[in-house]
Recover the amino acids of this structure.
C-alpha cells in the first residue's frame, strides 16, 4: 500500500486525535486559496522582508546612503541611481490600471523602470513612487516612497492595496507582477468590455501592449501599443497602422517631463519575460514550503518518523519545479518574424551587464530576430531567489535542467532548444554560475 493510501486508511482510525489537531488537519486539506501565503509557513504580511529595498532603507538609516530630492521628479532620479536601475529601461503605460490611476492618461502616462531585482513606478505629480522588489523568501514585496521632501525618506511596505491585483491567479496565486494589454479610451480608461490580455513572453505580439506606448521598429509585425480608441465602441479590427514602428512620442505627450523620451520595445519584452520567471520562482518557493510543512504536520499527527516522504509532497514539488524550468528555458515563447530594434539604448546596456564566459557569451545576449535571447535560458538563473529555494525544490530544478540541457537528448516540450543551444547554455553556466551541482561538470 502506498504512503498516501496508508494515510487515508488511518484517517478513520484516529478518533482519539485532539480537536485542535483535527481542525489543523482539515485546514491543510482544503483547496488552495488566494491567501494561502498569509498562513503558516509563509505568513507573507507578518514576515520581515530582506531585499534590496529593505537593505537600502538600513543604509539610509545608518547614514551610509542618501536619497536626494529633485524639484521636478522627486526622489526618482536619486533612487534609480542608488538601485542601479537604468533610465533606458523606461516604459510608459497610459491605461488607468494602477494605484495612482487619477494621475494617468495618454498625456501623462505612468513610467516604469526596472532591473533584475526591482521595479519602480512614477507618475507625474504623483503622491508616491511605487516600488516592488524580488525578495528571496517572500517573493515580490511592495513599497511606496512619499514624493514630498523629507529629512529621512522612508519606504513604506504595502500589502492589502497591492495584493488585490498582485496576489491573484494572474500572478500564479502568489505575490507577484502582472502586465495587461487593454483597449483604452481618450482619458486612459480601460474598455474592459472589449476584452483584455494578461501578457508575457508567450503572448503573440499582435495581442501585446494595449494601453502602453511602444517605441522601436518591428517590421511587419503588429501590436496594440500606441492605440487610443476614439469611438464609443471598439471596432472589431481597430486600425493601429499609425501605432506601428513608432520612434518618436513627442506628438503624443510632453516627453521632456520624463527621464528619457522613450518607451522601449526591448525593455517591454525583457520585462514580460522577467515577471513570469519571478512569479514562477516565488510559486516554486511557496509550494515547497507549504508541501513540506503539510508533510511535517501529517507525520506528527500519525506518529510517522520525521522525514517520512509523502507522495503528494513529491508531486507538488515536481509540478511547481517543472513550471519554473519551463519559464527559465523560455518554453512556448512567441516567435519573432522580423528583426526588432529599440530606441533608448536599453538593449545594448542590458547585454553589457551580463556575466560572460571565456568565449564572451552571456545569457543576456539578445537575438531579436527569431526570439528574445540568443541563448534561451533566463539570466534570472543567477538570482539570489534561486539560491534561496528550499533544498528539495532547488535540487529538483537543477536535476531537471541538467536532464534537459546536459544529457544530449531532445525532450518533448523543449524542441525549441537545439543541440547547439543546449551545449552553449551548459558551457556558459559552468563558467559563470556559482554553486552548480557537481554532476554538471
Amino acid at each position: 500500500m502506498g504512503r498516501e493510501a496508508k494515510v487515508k486508511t488511518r484517517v478513520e482510525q484516529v478518533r482519539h486525535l485532539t480537536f485542535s489537531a483535527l481542525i489543523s488537519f482539515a485546514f491543510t486539506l482544503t483547496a488552495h486559496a488566494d491567501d494561502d501565503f498569509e498562513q503558516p509557513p509563509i505568513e507573507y504580511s507578518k514576515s520581515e522582508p530582506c531585499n534590496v529595498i529593505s537593505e537600502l532603507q538600513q543604509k539610509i538609516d545608518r547614514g551610509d546612503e542618501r536619497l536626494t530630492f529633485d524639484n521636478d521628479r522627486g526622489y526618482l532620479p536619486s533612487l534609480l541611481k542608488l538601485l542601479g536601475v537604468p533610465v533606458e529601461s523606461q516604459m510608459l503605460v497610459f491605461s488607468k490600471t494602477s494605484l495612482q490611476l487619477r494621475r494617468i492618461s495618454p498625456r501623462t502616462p505612468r513610467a516604469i523602470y526596472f532591473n533584475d531585482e526591482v521595479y519602480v513606478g512614477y507618475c507625474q505629480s504623483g503622491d508616491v513612487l511605487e516600488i516592488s522588489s524580488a525578495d528571496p523568501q517572500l517573493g515580490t514585496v511592495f513599497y511606496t516612497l512619499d514624493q514630498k521632501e523629507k529629512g529621512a525618506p522612508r519606504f513604506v511596505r504595502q500589502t492589502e492595496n497591492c495584493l488585490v491585483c498582485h496576489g491573484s491567479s494572474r500572478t500564479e496565486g502568489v505575490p507577484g507582477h502582472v502586465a495587461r494589454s487593454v483597449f483604452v479610451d481618450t482619458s486612459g480608461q480601460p474598455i474592459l468590455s472589449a476584452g483584455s490580455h494578461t501578457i508575457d513572453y508567450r503572448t503573440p505580439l499582435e495581442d501585446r501592449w494595449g494601453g502602453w506606448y511602444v517605441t522601436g521598429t518591428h517590421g511587419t509585425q503588429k501590436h496594440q501599443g500606441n492605440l487610443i480608441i476614439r469611438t464609443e465602441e471598439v471596432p472589431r479590427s481597430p486600425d493601429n497602422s499609425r501605432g506601428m514602428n513608432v520612434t518618436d512620442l513627442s506628438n503624443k505627450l510632453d516627453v521632456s517631463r520624463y527621464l528619457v523620451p522613450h518607451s522601449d520595445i526591448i525593455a517591454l519584452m525583457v520585462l514580460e519575460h522577467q515577471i513570469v520567471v519571478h512569479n514562477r520562482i516565488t510559486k516554486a518557493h511557496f509550494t515547497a514550503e507549504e508541501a513540506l510543512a503539510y508533510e511535517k504536520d501529517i507525520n506528527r499527527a500519525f506518529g510517522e518518523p520525521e522525514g517520512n516522504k509523502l507522495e503528494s509532497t513529491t508531486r507538488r514539488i515536481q509540478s511547481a519545479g517543472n513550471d519554473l524550468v519551463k519559464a527559465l528555458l523560455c518554453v512556448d515563447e512567441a516567435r519573432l518574424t522580423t528583426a526588432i530594434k529599440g530606441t533608448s539604448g536599453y538593449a545594448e546596456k542590458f547585454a553589457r551587464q551580463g556575466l560572460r564566459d571565456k568565449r564572451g557569451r552571456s545569457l543576456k545576449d539578445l537575438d531579436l530576430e527569431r526570439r528574445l535571447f540568443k541563448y534561451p535560458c533566463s539570466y534570472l538563473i543567477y538570482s539570489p531567489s534561486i539560491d534561496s529555494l528550499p533544498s528539495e525544490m532547488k535540487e529538483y530544478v537543477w536535476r531537471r535542467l541538467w536532464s534537459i540541457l546536459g544529457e544530449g537528448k531532445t525532450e518533448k516540450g523543449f524542441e525549441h532548444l537545439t543541440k547547439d543551444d543546449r551545449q552553449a547554455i551548459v558551457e556558459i553556466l559552468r563558467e559563470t554560475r556559482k554553486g552548480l551541482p557537481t554532476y554538471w561538470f
Observations:
- The first strand starts at residue 91 and ends at 93.
